[in-house]
Fold:
Amino acid sequence: MKKEFQLFICLLIVSGILTLSGCVDDSPDMPDVTQSELQNDVLYQVSTIDALLEGLYDGQLSMGELKEQGDLGLGTFDALDGEMIVIDGEVYQMKTDGYAYSVDDTVTTPFAAVTDFETDESIVLKEPSHSSEVALLIWELLPSKNLMYAIRIDGTFEHMKVRSVPVQEEPYPLLVDVIADEQAVFELEDVEGSIVGFWLPYYVEGINVPGYHFHFIDTGREKGGHVLEYVIRNGTIYIDQTAGFELVLPESAEFMNGDISRDKGDELHTVEKDDK
Structure:
């Protein structure tokens, strides 16, 4: 991007940065974290989920630039060409053929979120658990429902249900219509791999996805997609408490002139949860 409009929101008191709240209270569920450590813990995001729902799919930031901002995250690609997973500092593109591909640094994204992942808490899973049970377990362990958390789950999965979407042509349809008409769903059995993503609080609605948003990739970096449902046999959950948030908005004509103000709550639920 030639120009960037950056909105930086930090949940700690940082000189020169907009303050939303005070320091995080000590909690037995998370180790003590110093203020300087939390100041460096930032979720970096390109554009907003409402813009993506509205069909604003033109790439805004290159993969090379995105990787400078974090080593774990998710998103999509220019023209909505598949699901993005960022893991261990590498970017992969899950296409509708069900396979993952390495991505050149020049490829761009219309929407993505990444962070430099550092584990604050880990949970070992020794018994088979459905995705709904894992979600409840993580929810109960979060020390605050008002902060942001990056999450990675490494394990062996009895069942993994994922989806991807195909590249779109202009004029772009709404994302909810793409999901309804064109998404490809895949069911993987007995697969080892990693789930990456975020749990975000309610107040991000319209900016990102409140609650859980996960993508998956197997250990061979060959298959994956947007997570719809899974059963994990055993594994480990890693949680990174994130205190800062940086939002980079596009300055494209489509974004500047587009109407993204309408309520998209029902569409977001369909896009994120409904596998049709």
Q: What stands out?
A: The radius of gyration is 18 Å. Confidence is low (pLDDT under 50) at residues 1-31.
